[in-house]
Specification:
The chain has 3 helices and 4 strands, in the order H-E-H-E-E-H-E. By secondary structure, the chain is α+β, with helices and mostly antiparallel strands. The termini are far apart. The relative contact order is 0.25. The structure holds iron/sulfur cluster (SF4) (2 copies).
Length: 78
């Protein structure tokens, strides 16, 4: 009985974890076209001084839409 409740607790804990997302933007190749910031469904990216910038990595869901849409292959999402 004790073990069973322990496993259930661990499963619930795992489901509550936030997505571990890491976003790399190659600022050298970014031309500030805004396609990534417009396409991101979670409003993670914003353009600052004509370069895409991560506004809030906590809300990134690793969907990789930004990677797919960037014409210059600037973005890598792990
Ligand atoms: S991976 Fe998805 S959620 Fe994360 S920044 Fe790119 S488009 Fe936004
Ligand atoms: S889509 Fe690519 S080139 Fe355009 S702003 Fe985003 S990172 Fe920069």
């Amino acid at each position: 009985m004790g073990l069973g409740s322990l496993f259930r607790r661990n499963k619930n804990k795992k489901e509550e974890e936030t997505v571990d997302c890491h976003i790399d933007i190659n600022a050298q190749d970014c031309d500030g076209c805004e396609k990534c910031s417009i396409a991101c469904p979670n409003n993670v990216l914003m353009i600052v001084d004509d370069v895409s910038t991560v506004r809030d990595p906590q809300v990134c869901k690793s969907c990789k839409v930004c990677m797919a849409i960037c014409p210059n292959d600037c973005i890598t999402v792990n």
